[in-house]
């Protein structure tokens, strides 16, 4: 299967290299706002009042950064699955090099602006990276391609929405730049997924169904991830409505998953199950939005009181 995909990988790698724009993390960091922290350099200890970011934006930035920090584990997985030779190997290393900029830039921004407690941030990084990362389908390239096609789009949206709620132009510009990388990565994997639906439609459809059914963001091992995810969902950074409307639905439509012809019995069943999953996710999203609106109404009433 990987051998059959090699020409598609090469075409999309060449496309990516033409479209990818060179950029430099240091250019997006307001270094002049920085100062020494307490410790060996005898600087000033961090205080919550130092950060100009809303609390939910700080939470989102930390979640995004800690997710990016696990890059060594992600690289190990795709290098093992896709190999290090030919177009596949070139892509694996190029993707890793581009992703490495994201964690560097976000961390430098947060430290220079005193956006978060650096001690808490480092302890969380150590805890998260010490766990590593392993996909539930880490031995199957089809599942991996289906997963990253969804995950890259979800990550792009999370970065953009984090920048939007930050209320800080420098932060928003940085995250928009990172999101542009993630978008190109998504397009690469989305095109591979579309090719798989032509080369091996039954197997690709089953993989896509499995990924949709148990999708989790790669940062799910971050300390207090469930609580932080609820906070970000209430703020509209990433929620069930976004997951359904802005991630799953556009991807499925683009690759034609719900209209792929010529499926066998098992592939056709997987296609029907995807339609059922989407219907249930839509119901979940509607309920979530209703609960969020009720939550916001109660908050406004309490604030008025």
From TrEMBL:
Quaternary structure and partners: Homodimer.
Family to which this protein belongs: Belongs to the fatty acid desaturase type 2 family.
Species of provenance: Actinacidiphila epipremni
Pfam families from the UniProt entry: FA_desaturase_2
Protein name as catalogued: Acyl-ACP desaturase
UniProt cofactor(s): Fe(2+)
Alphabetized UniProt keyword annotations: Fatty acid biosynthesis, Fatty acid metabolism, Iron, Lipid biosynthesis, Lipid metabolism, Metal-binding, Oxidoreductase
Nucleotidyltransferase in keyword set: no
Species lineage: Bacteria, Bacillati, Actinomycetota, Actinomycetes, Kitasatosporales
């Amino acid at each position: 299967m990987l051998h059959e995909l090699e020409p598609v990988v090469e075409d999309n790698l060449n496309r990516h290299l033409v479209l990818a724009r060179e950029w430099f993390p240091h250019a997006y960091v307001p270094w002049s706002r920085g100062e020494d922290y307490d410790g060996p350099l005898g600087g000033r200890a961090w205080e919550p009042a130092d950060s100009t970011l809303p609390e939910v934006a700080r939470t989102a930035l930390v979640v995004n950064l800690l997710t990016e920090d696990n890059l060594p584990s992600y690289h190990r997985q795709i290098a093992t699955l896709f190999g290090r030779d030919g177009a596949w190997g070139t892509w694996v290393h190029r993707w890793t090099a581009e992703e490495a900029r994201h964690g560097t830039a976000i961390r430098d921004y947060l430290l220079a602006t005193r956006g978060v407690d650096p001690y808490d941030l480092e302890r969380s990084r150590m805890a998260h990276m010490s766990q590593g990362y392993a996909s539930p389908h880490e031995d199957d390239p089809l599942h991996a391609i289906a997963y990253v096609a969804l995950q890259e789009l979800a990550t792009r949206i999370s970065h953009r929405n984090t920048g939007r709620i930050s209320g800080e132009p420098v932060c928003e510009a940085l995250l928009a730049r990172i999101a542009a990388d993630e978008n190109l990565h998504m397009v690469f994997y989305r095109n591979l997924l579309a090719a798989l639906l032509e080369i091996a439609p039954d197997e690709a459809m089953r993989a896509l169904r499995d990924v949709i059914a148990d999708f989790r963001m790669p940062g799910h091992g971050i300390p207090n991830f469930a609580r932080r995810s609820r906070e970000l969902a209430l703020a509209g950074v990433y929620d069930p409505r976004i997951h359904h409307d802005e991630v799953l639905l556009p991807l499925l439509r683009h690759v034609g998953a719900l209209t792929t012809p010529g499926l066998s019995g098992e592939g056709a069943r997987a296609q029907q199950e995807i339609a059922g999953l989407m219907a249930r996710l839509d119901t979940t999203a509607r309920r979530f939005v209703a609960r969020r609106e009720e939550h916001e109404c109660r908050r406004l009433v309490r604030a008025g009181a």
